[in-house]
Amino acid sequence: xxxxxxxxxxxxxxxxxxxxxxASGFDLPCNIAFVPEPTRNPGDPLFYVTELYGNVKVVTxxxxxxxxxxxxxxxxxxxxxxxxGESGLIGLCVEPxxxxxxxxxxxxxxxxxxxxxxxxxxPGGLKMETETTILDDVPxxxxxxxxxxxxxxxxxxLYVNIGDGMIDxxxxxxxxxxxxxxxxxxxxxxxxxxxxxxxxxxxxxGVRNPFGAAWxxxxxxxxxxxxxxxxxxxxxRIVAAGNYGWPETMRRNSLFWWHFTHAPTAIAFMQDGQxxxxxxxxxxxxxxxxxxxxxxxxxxxxxxxxxxxxxxTAAHSAELFVVYQGEGLASPCGMAFGPGGMxxxxxxxxxxxxxxxxxxxxxxRVKPRT
Length: 370
Known about the structure:
Layout: H1 3-8, E1 11-13, E2 17-26, E3 29-34, E4 45-51, E5 55-60, E6 65-69, E7 89-94, E8 101-109, E9 112-121, E10 130-139, E11 147-152, E12 158-162, E13 181-185, E14 202-205, E15 213-216, E16 221-226, E17 234-238, E18 254-257, E19 264-269, E20 283-287, E21 302-306, E22 319-324, E23 332-338, E24 341-346, E25 361-368
Antiparallel strand pairs: 1-22, 2-25, 3-4, 4-5, 5-6, 7-8, 8-9, 9-10, 11-12, 12-13, 13-14, 15-16, 16-17, 17-18, 19-20, 20-21, 21-22, 23-24, 24-25
């Protein structure tokens, strides 16, 4: 048995599905985003992966890994998990019309750490040649609660999740502060005139640490995952001018919450036929768990699924779909549906010799068993 096959055996799967490693050797692979309409050319891009400490990798149709962009961070991460090593380059999406990437990260200037969104472009989608700042100068820290998911909505606008910055949670309710908010902007970073306040990028407020985001076609809505303090991690449907309660509560306008923390990261809807019809429109959620724990644990290290009712509540409790059962640090972080199945990143990966180190993260694909 190869080490790649052995890695796949470390995960329990929902009956009727199988798992395969499609790409390995990533250094802290965080989020994954697919080219909206992949070609059949073996050397063309299929999906992109953000590596937490400043690189973007592109995987082509022939499963080869290339470096699209590198050294995007202007500071040196300190690799502390849990702690300040959890921050860096996180959010990622692909613009359908051009193939350009939007990425989110933190950077450092004379005033301290700041949140930033950049647009990356390059011919053929294989190598970045230009980097354009879309949003910056939003206060942050070297920790969690930073700028996170970036998505392009059905309206063609860019939506950005920004955490509350951890230090002063009251900013999530301050309409003049962009932290603790979901932002909506044109692709050049300007304010759409039909925003709730035409003078502000703020689309919704009252979120804490909103890592994941996904668009649901059946109701044309944006959904997010949001991490609670010691309880009440949640899933919420985002509406214009919505207030999601933080710091007073994590339950306001939420459709589902966990009573103890699982650290939800990426979320995705199965809506393009990759799984059997019984799974159509179900929501899948990566539960990362504690930041640096080996082996199995009640918290995180799994992917769950849930169906939603017509009134936008969860039809049942979250159901296990993928669970890590090995002895390493592995835990799912990024996730997206793509050709042939559901893909997820394993941030820490499995070590060949039991030792920690760079370049050990993988991308897996879950697909129906044939």
